[in-house]
Design a protein that fits this description.
disordered N terminus; 12% strand; PyrdxlP-dep_de-COase (chains A, B); 2 domains; homodimer; 7-stranded mixed β-sheet; 13 helices; lyase (chains A, B); aromatic-L-amino-acid decarboxylase activity (chains A, B); decarboxylase (chains A, B); Aspartate Aminotransferase, domain 1; alpha/beta; Aspartate Aminotransferase, domain 2
Chain lengths: 517, 517
């Protein structure tokens, strides 16, 4: 029996061999960055591999047979970020060492909601949080944080702690009959004032100021928390938050505010001017909270060349990082950090079966109050192993390699007669589009629609051919369809990138020619 | 270089060997269900293994060295659910086949928020959801669902969809100038009425009725969504929701309501009378939503012997399951299911870089609208492999084995002069406490406090000795400290369980004797 409870080493060894062989076989089946044929064909192939009859049959096929067949199917049916022509999203090719570390976690199945489910795992997460806090520029002895499912959860936590804190501060200010600037990065207020009785403060209508290029999860998180007023702040031509626009927005909203800045926008990789934003937020006359969504750009902290672009990040009240982007972890490896305990009372809970007070006092640390989840796998472990294995220099070199690839892509695009760069390269994202010969300056609705369709068709054609995964989004004042390369594969070469862009252009030429009468 | 982008098979093969050897070495280091010495000693050992200097050094130690050392540390420092004496929580010993399947996911790093990050993974999740819907008793062709991080997220989603739907229905009723019973399990209303404009409906003060034995995440989720009124419903002596109490609560709250029933309470494994509750909710005169938290008890559906205890589950408006409990998956493997599309409009979003409308129309399915997350690992894959590998019969046999162990434990406790059973066995949880010889009937605050301390001390002593992980919670009208066995290891034997209970009793005897003057 390959059941649990046995020392699983032998079973697991055999089954891992099956997995690795199926990964190899599936890659050979695919022979490109993604399966060819388009979504209907891929769906049918997946269903065929899942087998006839119900997915949960009365009697099973046995471990090796099911594992081998389904792993081969998943591999053949994947858009593999380890292929240089798979460059559409911020899902990275993960490091083998992180994948192997995560296997240990799967095998041991610890959970961070109580000490007795993760005696060592608890300390590992605390240490990973401290290391990342130091990287961000927070004092690691005071910083608090958690490993999350990603930027979406981290942004939600930023809004949650921020709205709780600013709401509480506003209540305290009103109680004192005055409204003055809060102490920025102040120590937490008296705990008695921040207790559960005041939780209603977090549901107040605190407006959220975020650039129009911020991630959609900011709006979604605000809606979830009932912070219905999300105020979009304009961006400059490089998709960075416009500081003058923020100043004006802050002047219009002179009560408590949350400001969300972005370090690495999803579409352009742009980094908002964090230091200037922090200054503005600090001088706001009412309680405020600055959350920085550095899910994409936080990886630049590993790089000596690029870390300076995040100057001001250490002035944030909370920060989101994602090490499953520029950190080469298998998802999820999100991180949420704050410089102090401020705001965390919102999540505190004493639950009889998890963290009774006397056990907490006795040192059985429960991380229940660090997360919106209860059961929580220590995704921190793969991060810890990666950090010890590679060190900052190798991680920084990987970031630099991706940045180099993006710079190369930008030059190729700038030199190409039918490719048009839409934003400067900041990190490893390249935003551009194909503009066929003979196109005007892009004015006119009809021409815009034609260009939109053409660029959308380039991407679909490449997907359906199984030839490349190129990203798509909208950009510019007219929300025109653009293409995007997210270059997260440091093992890709400049030649790979040149070839990918040549393929994009040739596909555009072909589709444009087909469209001729 | 063991970096990403290479065909990782060879690197990964080597590193997996390192992982397996370190798992073996760490288990030998531990030589028990958890590390001995108590939290301070475990913390120091973990810090020592993380190495001197910063966790993120300038230059790393190399993959094999870091992976081997840290995996050995994590293993030695784990409370291993594969050990029969580790029986405190609902984290299970995972199946080797599920662990191996999850490795494939880590390697390929797909994400379900857009088709082009998970072409096959998208279909896998849809098929797993359909299979689980069928297991629950929903029509799999109409059911909708998602794989979640666990019961906490699933419960939040139930509250979110439920409050949105009941709020919307109440708004529609008022608009029509009447308030009648809704059609239970009705088809979704006209989409135009459920659009985004009405989202504010979800923030309404819909009360949440949930038994006092329900999971803490219900209250936490309600607070997050601003549904501040959580009405506790009394339980009977077996910790099941009292139907008369629910009837009275529904009579007091004659507007829109959410009712959360529990199939498998955390502390006693009790299953609320689902069919009777569903009848009551159905006859409520205002819009209502019944969410069933079957995170623990849902596993009984695999068992012919126990599935009948969940009769009525198919009448729910939403259901939470956790296959990282009685499903032997490595966490996370939560599931959220609904019988129809009703409520899901709350999560719909069209995002330019993920799911532009024309691509969705063309069949590039994005599961973005199925989740509160954006990046989302297909945890469905390990479930799919497990289902195909084991079939329902083997999974059912595992559930029955755990149930047998719990019944055995209950008999041992009932026959023991100093152990006292606190609830009947329903699933695989055994709630009990140690009562020393010469104790009265448990009345009197002083005696109650002494018993509480004694039972808490038994657990701590066993933890600090590295001898056993026994659960702890409060139970009964006086919230007395009790001990708990959660028997999720089907490879454990009745002899193991007898020995564990004998150890608990002997530890109680020893501590009671030490307390004598």
């Amino acid at each position: 029996m390959t059941g649990p409870g046995h020392q699983p080493a032998d079973d697991l060894r055999t089954l891992l061999r099956v997995t690795l062989e199926a990964l190899d076989a599936g890659r050979r089946d695919r022979s490109g960055p993604l399966p060819a044929g388009g979504p209907a064909a891929v769906r049918q192939a997946t269903l065929d591999a899942l087998g006839p009859g119900p997915l949960l049959p009365r009697t099973g096929d046995g471990e090796a047979a099911a594992l081998g067949a389904l792993t081969r199917m998943l591999t053949a049916g994947s858009a593999d970020p380890a292929d240089p022509f798979c460059a559409a999203h911020l899902h990275c090719p993960p490091l083998a060492v992180a994948v192997a570390a995560d296997l240990a976690v799967s095998t041991l199945n610890p959970s961070l909601d109580s000490w007795d489910q993760a005696p060592a795992g608890t300390t590992v997460e605390l240490e990973v949080v401290a290391a990342l806090a130091e990287l961000v520029g927070f004092d690691p002895t005071h910083a608090v944080g958690t490993v999350t499912t990603g930027g979406t959860e981290s942004n939600l936590m930023g809004l949650l702690l921020g709205s709780h804190t600013t709401g509480q501060a506003a209540i305290r200010s009103r109680a004192r009959g005055r409204s003055g600037p809060r102490a920025h990065h102040g120590r937490p207020g008296p705990r008695a004032q921040l207790g559960r009785a005041g939780r209603g403060g977090s549901a107040g209508p605190v407006p959220v100021l975020c650039s129009a290029a911020g991630h959609h999860s900011v709006r979604r998180g605000a809606e979830l928390l009932g912070l219905t007023k999300v105020v979009p702040v304009a961006v400059d031509a490089a998709y960075r938050m416009d500081v003058q626009a923020l100043r004006a927005a802050l002047a219009r909203h002179d009560g408590p505010v949350l400001v969300v800045a972005t370090a690495g926008t999803t579409d352009a990789g742009a980094i908002d001017p964090l230091a200037e934003i922090a200054d503005l937020v600090r001088s706001h006359p009412a309680p405020s909270w600055l959350h920085v969504d550095a899910a994409h750009g936080g990886g630049a902290l590993f790089s000596r060349r690029l870390a300076g672009r995040l100057t001001g990040l250490d002035q944030a009240d909370s920060v989101a990082l994602d090490l499953h982007k520029l950190g080469w972890q298998p998802a999820p490896a999100g991180v949420f950090l704050t410089p102090s305990r401020r705001g965390w009372s919102r999540l505190e809970a004493e639950i009889a079966y998890l963290n009774p007070a006397d056990e907490t006092t006795a040192g059985y640390t429960s991380l229940l109050g660090r997360s919106l989840r209860t059961t929580r796998r220590p995704d921190a472990f793969k991060i810890a192993v990666t950090f010890r294995a590679l060190g900052r220099e190798r991680l920084g070199a990987m970031v630099d390699a991706c940045h180099d690839l993006a710079e190369h892509a930008a030059h190729v695009i700038a030199d190409h007669p039918r490719l048009e760069l839409a934003a400067p390269v900041t990190l490893s994202t390249v935003l551009f589009r194909y503009v066929p010969a003979g196109t005007g300056t892009g004015t006119g609705t009809e021409e815009g629609t034609r260009l939109d369709r053409l660029n959308a068709a380039i991407r679909s054609r490449l997907l359906d051919d199984g030839a490349a995964v190129v990203g798509r989004t909208t950009a510019g004042p007219e929300a025109a369809v653009h293409l995007k390369l997210t270059l997260l594969n440091p093992a890709a070469t400049a030649a790979d990138v040149s070839a990918l862009l040549a393929l994009v252009a040739a596909t555009g030429d072909r589709i444009a020619a087909e469209a001729q009468p």
